[in-house]
Fold this protein.
Amino acid sequence: MASVREQPASWRELAVVSHLDGLKRCPWPGVDPLYLDYHDNEWGRPERDGRALFEKLTLDGFQAGLSWITILRKREAFRAAFDGFDPAKIARFDQKRVATLMGNDAIVRNRAKIDGAVLSAQAWLEIEATTGFSDYLWGFVDGRPIVNHWTRMSDVPTQTP
């Protein structure tokens, strides 16, 4: 089980727990192996591959209103249902294919989210053809991850500009 120090030296230590494997992690993945793997190998790591970013964008869209672990548990089914998140293929999904997806109980069956994924794939193709999807997204932060070094909880903004 995870444990937290009783009296942290700083607010940052509140966000770190020691796990049975001896590693210190954020508390949110709990003990679920899938969540721990996601935390250790994906979360917080900059991604520059345009196709991988498209997959993340699509899964984030399906996650709306649900927990992230729900989406992680369905990710392989999503990959199969959405042709490996190939935007060129998804952009051509017709109503018959959408109906098939609506009948697939291994994924989130929400018509608006499925339609949104198709529209996003079409937009991805346009952006990829002009500037590249990765360059487009990274352009909003000058190509560098934003790393904050807050020392007090009161320094953390409660909303974005």
Summary: The mean pLDDT is 90. The domain at 50-141 is CATH 1.10.340.30 (Endonuclease III; domain 1). The two ends are 39 Å apart (CA to CA). The first strand starts at residue 17 and ends at 18.
